[in-house]
Amino acid sequence: MLEHAPISKYDTSTIDLLKQLTLSGELKEINDDYLYWDKVKYKTKSIEPEQYWNAVKLSRSFNKQNILFGTYQFNFNVTDYILRLLHHFDLNIGGNLGSNVGITETDKNKFLISSIMEEAISSSQMEGANTTRKAAKEMIQKERKPKNKSEQMIMNNYATMKYIVQHKNDDLTPEKLLFIHRLIANNTLDSIEEEGKFRENNDIYVVNYSNSEIVHIPPKKEEIEVIMNDLCVFFNEEQKTFIHPIIKGIIIHFMIGWIHPFTDGNGRTARALFYWYMLKNGYWLTEYLTISTIIKDTKIQYEKAFLYSEIDQNDLTYFITYHIKTMEKAFIALKEYISRKQNEVIQAAKFVKIPNVNDRQAQILKILNEDSDRVLSSKEMENRFGISNFTARSDLNNLESLGFLEKIQVNKIKHNFIKAKQFNKILKSYKL
């Protein structure tokens, strides 16, 4: 169980210590990481931990901003660290001038499809979906019917992310929120009647499964409608005091987890709403950020950020700081991913030298050159490259006519393609 901090008491000695910690730079370090009492108390040797904590808490009280949802009050600070990263994100993931990550117009659709898949898979795996990334990608690319609950969760998330991209400029209403939940929860809950419906009982708790400890008791069912209406207003309208859009998106994410309006699927819904809010407010590169992948890999910190915020007088800065760090990691991962993919394109460039082979077909040849047992379908090519079925079939048929592919019959109507026996021989003939 998280240790509760001592009740803060401010006096002249606290103010003097605050000045001292500010001048030494210690306070900035603590607040940039936004440490809680369980870490702060070990930061001092010559000063009593409680007095040290009093100075930290006093510094956080000066500029905090309060917000209200229903009858519940929350607050947050915008630290130097948060300000710096907000500026970084404004320059790189928003606006109309593009970014410096190197996504070309011709590659945007390809990277978008891959990113949405990664986000859908990771967000589902966080909630218990048990399948490999490779198997999940193949299911999505080939539009294969899910075989179990885990695959259904991933397919649902993928459908939800695609829906949000198409409706990113819409306002949020309780009805649309319920629709999002219905998409996310389809065929994955114990009762189909719970899909797209606010919970109708108070018998719900957030539990730390490592020790079965109850760590959060959400608001009662009778309060959900009022709080969710307030959250929709928060999503759609400007507040009297300006709140940066990224911070607002993070608060929306937190609130769905805190309110727990559904019997299940709250985490996936919360991350989907964050994604939606960011796109709605012009942060277009969010479409390419696989934030849930980072959260999945730092799940303990994710859960602690929720707990710290609640246990320390609903101070959302803990969760905001964690989320901002996560976005920075996701942005770095995106740049590395694009660099790898661009290297793959360079490696596939030699195949473009083959007469009558376009860029997509060159990438197909590269795939087969590296994976001889690969079975290709027009549906997979559609999803991989974001093209029509006609174009996908044309690409595969052209490679067959050039001798690189062979058709294999699946049934009376459908056929797939495999690497032709003479693939390597034909490739050598072009002296690439």
Automatic annotation (TrEMBL):
In this protein, which residues make up the domain named Fido? 172-325
Reply yes or no: does the keyword Transcription apply.
Answer: yes
Question: Which SUPFAM superfamilies does the annotation name?
Answer: Fic-like (SSF140931), Winged helix' DNA-binding domain (SSF46785)
Q: Please tell me whether the keyword Transcription regulation is annotated for this protein.
A: yes
- The signal peptide here is none
Specify the superkingdom. Bacteria
Arranged from A to Z, the UniProt key words for this protein are: Transcription, Transcription regulation
| Alphabetical list of InterPro entries matching this protein | DeoR_HTH, Fido, Fido-like_dom_sf, Fido_containing, WH-like_DNA-bd_sf, WH_DNA-bd_sf
Q: List the Pfam families.
A: Fic (PF02661), HTH_DeoR (PF08220)
The name this protein carries in UniProt is Fic family protein
* Species of provenance: Flavobacterium cupriresistens
Q: What is the lineage of its organism?
A: Bacteria, Pseudomonadati, Bacteroidota, Flavobacteriia, Flavobacteriales
